[in-house]
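**Backbone geometry record:**
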Amino acid sequence: MTLLGWSFAAPALLWGLLALPVLWLILRAMPPAPIRRYFPAVILLLGLNDARRSADRTPWWLLVLRALAVAAAIVGFAGPSRGPLLVGQSDAPLLIVMDASWAQAQDWPALREAALVALAEAGRQGRVAASIRLTDAPAPPQWQSADVLAASLAAAIPEARAPDDMSAFAQVLQGARFETLWLSDGLNHRGRDALLAALQAAGPLVVILPARPAYGMAPAGFEKGEIVASVQRLATPLPAEVTVLAIGTAPNGAQAELGRAAARFDSGAAAASVRFRLPPELRSRITHFDIEGQRSAGAVSLTDDTLKRRKVALIAPSVAAEGLQLLSPTHYLNVALAPTSDILRGTIAEVLPQGPDTIILADVAKIAASEAESLTAWINQGGTLLRFAGPRLAAVAGNGEEEAGDDFLPVRLRAGGRVTGGAMSWGESKTLAPFDANSPFAGLQVTEDVTVTAQVLAQPDPELAAATLAALADGTPLVTRRNLGAGQIVLFHITANAEWSNLPLSGLFVQMLERLSVAGRSDGASAQDVLASAWQPERLTGPFGNAQDGAGLAGVSGGDLWDALQAGPSAAVPAGLYAGKTRKIALNVVQTGDEMRAFDWPATVRLRGADQRPPVQAKGPLLALAALLMMTDALASLVLAGRLGGGQVSGRSMRKAAGLALIGLLFLVLPAPQAQAQAVATDFAALRATRGVVLAHVMTGDAAVDDIAAAGLRGLGEVLAYRTNIEPELPIAVDIETDELDFFPFLYWPISAQQALPSPKALAKLNRFLRTGGMIMFDTRSGDLPSAPEGAALQALTVGLDIPPLEPVPQDHVLGRSFYLLDGFPGRYEGGPVWVEAAPEGTADAPEGMPFRNLNDGVTPVIIGSHDWAGAWAVDENLSYMLPVGRGVA
């Protein structure tokens, strides 16, 4: 029932307001008015005072006070609320439908809060409820108590993908009767029409939409020497501008901002381009692009080999005759590699300091002894040395003169070579044999148009077959390879120009260079490339755009990855970076060619924004008002009866009672100085934090968790005072949204699944705290159980924090060598990993006992664990331990 904008949970109680006139008459009649009779003998009583006198009638103001108290109680018990209700007044089941997609991540806390408000209202009505996630497999709803569902829904997070076909859910829900609250992302996903029709047929429907628009970024590519990326949004009539950050690996191994550019949307435009012009050194370090201020998987675009332009060094003898460009040993290589690679030129000694990915030697017969050592070290570290034969190499092969470069050939060569076609040779030109299944060229199509007229020959050897990657139709090797350390040496037994073969003139030549990871593709991997390999996830994209380690996950087949590249990420193939045998492929939430389109909701659908405030519940204030009015009435009645301040019912007593009633009413209308009290408390905490060492814990909003954290830090402080020279002050609870963090050297952050996500202002404050030497210990308190909701809550809470690369605590870490030599860090649980900042590259083999890093005096800014340390430290006022300590988790 709705009346004057107010809704009532129990409107039938409002009929009790009709009894107020009757109550007024009853109160007027009590006490009964005396009948005045004049009796002459009454004069004998003059001068006598009666200590117990009664008023002849109830004062009007007291009648009003009592009537207001009864009215407030009646209206309060009727459950009034002002504002649009999320659920109706009925006993029908309540179904919470969640798109649970990446486009909801930005406003997920507000959307989840709306669902919790609706479940709380359903719980007050005694209704059952269920929830379905459209990113999961279709299944019938599992009905349960609304309160139980609210507890599990508090830790829910979206997925880093979009829903699949929603019409499958429409079939599951067909024929049922229920009321629906739909948390939608507003995008036009496949099958939404069918699901909408099924939900409307089932009963009342309310749709909650995100308050802020979602932005998505497609994979970046090259265009005219620049990196170009497309940013998308739902089309609006207003212009907008977002900043895109290029994030990559800094020289110290940490993630850093390598560049930024603005994407400007015109009015009504759904897409905008952003361009980066970066030097090759920075461009090759980029790992992903990120839309600043957006916390969703769609706002992150991972990069793979399609963006990274390889640095290839071309080294060949100079051509004496001018104008013979087509005869140059490197002409066709330059044409094949220039669109996708950065070409370096010079001697071996000149190009090695520039860090090339591949060095190509075209008909270079000898390698100087002064360059051999550095070239060998470069190959061992993962470099590819690609050599092409020619007249010079053929002239020294087999006669002992090739010994200077023998270490840089995959096989031993025979003297001279052979000519298979032409007027001065016996026989015809040779064609290529089909590539072996184990060859990196497997699957490439060989045509009879590609022929070889001359080549250098390999000496027969038992290992020659294993070294052969490609051969001619008669079995003679065409391409051979030898591994050296982490790198490889590859030899094409023909020239790099068309002098000995027309292979460099064909498209097969470019494809073979791609398979050797020499040339890159700017248009992504082909189906054949993907299907030919299995793929291991290296990095996954979380729903809030956070990076997750995928090294421990099972690999996916080429067919599954190819399907995901066409249809988008799925539960089996999540968004992330996948590594194959010869290349890496990024699977992003927003793919090239995707278009974000808003769903056109019918006028019959009741839409609400996630930013709309929940209904104002007036039950509690009205009942409190009724109680206070009744207390005021009781005081006034005592005064009128002479129980307070004398026995006379006089005008003075009446004024005193009226004054008490007025004071009670003033208590109702005057606001409590909460803000001032909070400011004073905050200032006092800050002042106390400057007096000495103060341990602080982050408030989670869960009273039980916060109390244990405070007790744990109190117990830790007692141990520090007993065993060291440190005497900490009493611990302080810190609100990261309002409190200043610079006073505290250490923050203990127990993770609660119900904790709200930090605001951008709080994230900036926390990042400043970490950069200036502060330490935060994150404790999920879950004993490293993989299914615990605190783990997902930790990922959501730390999105936006500048957390450095982490690793399990090494044996010689400073944490285990501060006061005692520790080989573990037990709390209430033990056995799970404890993560700290990873040591920079090159310091892993530092002498034992030496600091593993120099920043912050060897102190890691972040510690992450699941051992419930505060629970193990927690003591009561008698310094007795409060919680039992378990035996750990296997």
